[in-house]
Automatic annotation (TrEMBL):
GO terms for molecular function: adenosine deaminase activity; metal ion binding. Its cofactor is Zn(2+). GO terms for biological process: adenosine catabolic process; inosine biosynthetic process; nucleotide metabolic process. It comes from Owenia fusiformis. This is Adenosine deaminase domain-containing protein. It holds the Pfam family A_deaminase. Keywords: Hydrolase, Metal-binding, Nucleotide metabolism, Zinc. The keyword Hydrolase applies.
Length: 353
């Protein structure tokens, strides 16, 4: 764990409202009760410390979390705290993602929500945190095409206003709802406007036709891809498309096991793709809901799949290739990783001599 904590890391799949830490959640709940809210919320309804839950139960948890984060102050605090927590965990570059949300009761519009998130990112940038933060806007599968188009428009608008902080579009939300193919025109429009695409795909079984069409875009990265390969109900054709485009997979071990889409850690699709040398990026998904951290996910990967420290370093180093930011940012990050490797592995070799 000590090595995993000290390892510089890249986080590419983190939903803002799923990443709220226990501490932040407690503070938000306290504030809520001080303000006289009549419907008390227990903290255990927002996180899975032990055991697992069905995806239905997990999406019900998000509804509870959204009740707590229903105003711009909360959105600012959550984003600000998450960035500090990732920085403390030695994450040097993070792409947060979030669904623009309006709550008329509190006066929060989608624009005000995004401005609070972006203000938190800008304020963290002014501090000495050693982390680069970018933002991806999410289309919830529950939305209709008009909302999806509106999200793309917001991404384009805030990409400009924020000087490139907004860099992409995500498709997420309950994977059993609606059909991702409906959003393909919105994805194409986003791409034509310079936005990258990180899409949740094949998160549940029996979506091969939908996945097949979306893979033809192709997306720039795939979230989960749990059911792509034939051994679990996917197809050779899906695998061939992912391989052909070398589309990186964002893999979240704890999330998939606690969300019961994967039976146990050693059944995780990480093994299938990692063993064939396909680009894999270890991510947290929802570090608050699933009570994890990126260091814990690296440790889990190392223990489950018997990965050495050097290979773990390579795994984290190669993630730099798959960020949505510029080549200049990649060069800055690679330099940091090289400094870490020089200090760590040379010291290790010296200790052995
Ligand atoms: P938000 O977009 O910042 O509000 O983060 C919470 C949202 O992320 C949830 O309401 C879902 O739409 C999405 N999300 C979080 N985890 C998952 C997942 O495992 N699969 C699909 N969507 C997810
Ligand atoms: Zn996700």
């Amino acid at each position: 764990m000590e090595f995993c904590r000290s390892l510089p890391k890249i986080e590419l799949h983190a939903h803002i409202n799923g990443s709220i830490s226990e501490k932040t959640m407690q503070e938000l709940l306290q504030k809520r009760s001080q303000e006289g809210s009549k419907d008390p919320i227990e903290r255990w309804t927002t996180t899975i410390e032990k055991g697992d839950k069905s995806l239905d139960e997990i999406f019900a948890m998000f509804k509870v979390i959204h009740q707590i984060s229903n105003n711009t102050d909360a959105a600012y605090k959550i984003t600000y705290d998450i960035i500090h927590e990732f920085a403390e965990d030695n994450v040097k570059y993070v792409e947060l993602r979030t669904t623009p949300r309006a709550v008329p009761d509190t006066g929060m519009t989608k624009e005000l929500y995004l401005e609070s998130v972006l203000k938190a990112i800008a304020d963290c940038e002014k501090e000495d945190l050693d982390i680069i933060v970018k933002l991806i806007l999410a289309i919830d599968r529950r939305s209709d095409v008009n909302i999806a188009n509106e999200t793309v428009d917001l991404a384009v608008k805030y990409k400009q206003i924020s000087n490139g902080k907004v860099i992409g579009i995500d498709l997420s939300g309950d994977p059993s709802v609606n059909d991702a193919r409906d959003f393909i025109p919105a994805f194409k429009c986003a791409r034509s406007k310079g936005l990258k695409l990180a899409l949740h795909l094949a998160e549940v079984l029996d979506q091969n036709a939908e996945t097949e069409s979306v893979l033809d875009l192709p997306p720039d990265r795939i979230g989960h891809g749990t059911f792509l390969h034939p051994e679990v109900g996917g197809t050779e054709s899906l695998v061939a498309k992912v391989k052909q485009h070398k589309t990186p997979l964002e893999l979240c071990l704890t999330s998939n096991v606690k969300g019961r889409t994967v039976k146990a850690f050693d059944n995780h699709q990480f093994k299938y793709w990692y063993d064939m040398g396909h680009p894999c990026v270890v991510c947290t998904d929802d570090k608050g809901v699933f009570a994890t951290s990126l260091s814990k996910e690296y440790k889990l990967a190392a223990e489950t799949f018997d990965i050495s420290q050097q290979d773990l370093y390579q795994l984290s180093y190669k993630a730099i290739d798959h960020i949505f930011d510029t080549e200049d940012t990649k060069a800055i990050l690679r330099q940091k990783w090289c400094t870490f490797a020089e200090n760590t592995f040379k010291a290790n070799i010296r200790n052995l001599q």
